[in-house]
Automatic annotation (TrEMBL):
Keywords from the UniProt entry: Cytoplasm, RNA-binding
Homology family: Belongs to the SmpB family.
Pfam families documented for this protein: SmpB
PANTHER family found in the cross-reference section: SSRA-BINDING PROTEIN, TMRNA-BINDING COMPONENT OF TRANS-TRANSLATION TAGGING COMPLEX
Gene3D superfamilies per UniProt: 2.40.280.10
UniProt-recorded name of the protein: SsrA-binding protein
Role played: Required for rescue of stalled ribosomes mediated by trans-translation. Binds to transfer-messenger RNA (tmRNA), required for stable association of tmRNA with ribosomes. tmRNA and SmpB together mimic tRNA shape, replacing the anticodon stem-loop with SmpB. tmRNA is encoded by the ssrA gene; the 2 termini fold to resemble tRNA(Ala) and it encodes a 'tag peptide', a short internal open reading frame. During trans-translation Ala-aminoacylated tmRNA acts like a tRNA, entering the A-site of stalled ribosomes, displacing the stalled mRNA.
Gene Ontology MF annotations: RNA binding
Keyword RNA-binding among UniProt keywords: yes
GO terms under cellular component: cytosol
Gene: smpB
Top-rank lineage group of the source organism: Bacteria
GO biological process: trans-translation; trans-translation-dependent protein tagging
NCBIfam families, alphabetized: PRK05422.1, smpB
Lineage: Bacteria, Bacillati, Actinomycetota, Actinomycetes, Mycobacteriales
Length: 158
């Protein structure tokens, strides 16, 4: 029986802090058997991961999938370059956007979707330090406003 739904394996929490997300794509990942077994145990790290387009193919670099504990000589290399599976028109669109401006491809999360490993890939632009401070300030103000509204509603009921 096939598993349904979406089970998150790993997320890149710093990506939304360091980059402004412009667009997101879902891509399959070409993996070997021991990598999938290791991912089923929930082991992966997207911390230093990034994607590039070489010769019309999208490659995921810096993704760390530790060796499978029960693997033998067939075990994989933990930080090998892995091919991402996207439609040709998506690859062409991404290639054009990356070449025309200073944008990059950053993986946001890795998950199982109906038993297959997928990566949520973002077309992103790097943030400057002042952008990060403004975002932090904006989130703080929104949090305080929400808190105050909640207090007023509770005060009115009480």
């Amino acid at each position: 029986m096939k598993e349904k739904g979406r089970k998150v394996i790993a997320t890149n929490r710093k990506a939304r802090h360091n980059y402004t997300i412009i667009d997101t794509y879902e891509a399959g990942v070409a993996l070997v058997g021991t990598e999938v077994k290791s991912l089923r145990e929930g082991k992966a790290s997207l911390v230093d991961a990034w994607a590039s387009i070489d010769d019309g193919e999208v490659w995921l670099r810096g993704l760390h999938i530790p060796e499978y504990g029960h693997g033998s000589w067939t075990n994989h290399t933990p930080r090998r370059t892995r091919k991402l599976l996207l439609h040709r028109r998506e690859i062409d669109k991404l290639t054009g956007k990356i070449k025309e401006s200073s944008q990059t491809l950053v993986p946001l999360s890795m998950y199982f979707s109906d038993g297959k490993v997928k990566v949520e890939l973002a077309l992103a632009k790097g943030k400057q330090d002042y952008d990060k401070r403004q975002d932090s300030l904006r989130r703080t103000v929104e949090r305080e406003v929400t808190r105050e509204v909640g207090r007023r509603i509770k005060g009115m009921r009480g």
